[in-house]
Design brief:
Helices cover about 35% and strands about 15% of the residues. By secondary structure, it is of the alpha+beta class. The protein has one domain: 60s Ribosomal Protein L30, Chain: A (2-Layer Sandwich), CATH 3.30.1330. The chain has a four-stranded mixed beta sheet with strand order 1-4-2-3, covered by helices on one side. Helix 3 links the parallel strand 2 and strand 3. Helix 1 packs across helix 4.
């Protein structure tokens, strides 16, 4: 579950921007909790993690920092400097009010080897799914929606 969660919500390297570091961003405290428990199962201590809140400038920054500190069970003083998102009046943001607490970024220090393992696990899972389904007559290497690689950049 942790591999799928990370591959869906974590930052990934791109061919044009290599980032072999575990970085996870989310607004859901339950997702954050599951992610931290998964890291713990992998032997990654909270001491190796850095936490940062990202929140719009119109929100209650201090309340959000306190909220996320309770979620991850560390003193708010141990958080990295909060990233303030500048408000754009022309947008119609729905994430406002007392329940808006921004999102939390978790970065794992010295995690290049772990990142490569997670990438390998993900590709292994995908390969297993593809292999299993290729055994049926109606499966091909190209998913029903077509290969993303065969699309033009504007179609992607």
């Amino acid at each position: 579950m942790g591999v799928g969660l990370y591959w869906a919500e974590g930052s990934k390297s791109k061919p044009y921007d290599t980032r072999e570091q575990i970085t996870f961003v989310n607004i859901d405290p339950l997702m954050i909790d599951v992610f931290l428990h998964w890291l713990q199962l992998l032997g990654v201590s909270t001491a190796r993690c850095r936490f940062r809140v990202a929140i719009h400038e119109t929100a209650d920054v201090q309340a959000a920092e306190r909220f996320w500190a309770r979620v991850v069970v560390i003193p708010v003083e141990e958080f990295c400097r909060t990233t303030i998102k500048r408000h754009k009046p022309q947008t119609n943001r729905l994430n406002t009010g007392e329940t808006y607490r921004g999102c939390l970024t978790i970065s794992v220090l010295g995690s290049a080897a772990l990142y490569r393992s997670v990438a390998g696990w993900w590709h292994g899972l995908h390969g297993q799914v593809a292999q299993t389904h290729r055994r049926s007559a109606d499966w091909s290497d190209i998913p029903p929606w077509g290969s993303w690689q065969s699309r033009t950049p504007l179609e992607r």
